[in-house]
């Protein structure tokens, strides 16, 4: 058995090493001179206090509600993404803020499922969109339905409504935007009622020996069932779930349906039968042309499966999440009553699953751009914007590196085996490398190191990296944003949004004390009344 004792001695006792002792980090060489002054931090604190005191929270009804969902956007992901953003701007990075991190309210939510300690994107979607926690893998049904139980899910008594349905019932318009397949678990939470998130097309249902007539697939539900068939904007990937397996799409990829139906055409036929203007698009150029002449209904499916990672995409043919968000808002805000829009940065999750850390962080920054677009287009006075994640991942941000140290590189120090380790690492996943004589390989020497497809080193070998069970953050701005502070169940989120928007079955802000005249008004009224009596 090989012992690590020699490596411990080497690391702890070497006086000639250029690296500082790992327990005693060196002074941050990259820090600005101003930051060495105590007065700098005192002034920074006072400026933050003044900003808080000057902010006035709107107590109006939220006419518009946008929920941004960073799939797998854990708190360490936020910290690493903001650092990467700052470093791309030529700064040290640590003090940078993402746009939505400037929102006035932040909270934390617990993400577990009814039957699972660590959640998936199906049970979490049911929580943050329907206000009900349920079982792993199921969407839009209550906790009595187990994953794959078609019979239980066919019972409408198990179905739960989403905030999208509450918005439609109030006469508002609804849209969904995602960088994943539009039938994927997160966006499906707005419209689907299914026992299995994998039933995106009828072929997937059939593979389990079931009949799609008894267990309607998610794509079929979006086109033909309420509420999906009432959505004014549907943007994302996943074209294959809408086309038969004998038919190619515009990019020569075959569909996955086995019922020989073309749901894109059926979507168009439905709009023709209702005599409403509509447009199907599959290319960025088509989408950009719609900005100036918006139809009432839009369906945009830009890839056969998920949309391409931003850093790998063709910017001429595939729109960014910010561009999709802009067109969606332009369309939906035409309704005087308002709208509900769900926007997902879904590929953060996929990159984490593959241990592709730079792609995960860049997808986070792309979603942040979409949030910035929304805040530029909508007033904080009557538009509530909520940013959150569905679950965490097992990426860690570790080491004792100096300020400004490359967030995508190795930590400043080495391990006890005298081998570098990365600042951002994963607990598990496909990036495992076998050890030789109990010594880790030096991943910085690999030929593809620092390429987009380079997998970060992990401790436990798995086909896919797993989700994490830690809490995720919530950021809010707009009417009644302070309601989102604290630590609470993820299932509270749609109820809070509904409260601010005065929709849905629960308590509404419109009927609360927040909409009554202020205490100052009553004091002034009492003083006036007293003066009249004393005359």
TrEMBL record:
Residues given in the record as Zn(2+) 1 binding sites: 349, 353
* Coiled coil, from the record: none
Which keywords does this Swiss-Prot/TrEMBL entry list?
Answer: Cell membrane, Glycoprotein, GPI-anchor, Hydrolase, Lipoprotein, Magnesium, Membrane, Metal-binding, Signal, Zinc
* Binding residue positions for Mg(2+): 71, 184, 186, 344
Instruction: List the active-site residues.
Output: 121 (phosphoserine intermediate)
Which EC number(s) does UniProt give?
3.1.3.1
Q: Which Pfam families would you find in this protein's record?
A: Alk_phosphatase
Record family assignment: Belongs to the alkaline phosphatase family.
* UniProt-recorded name of the protein: Alkaline phosphatase
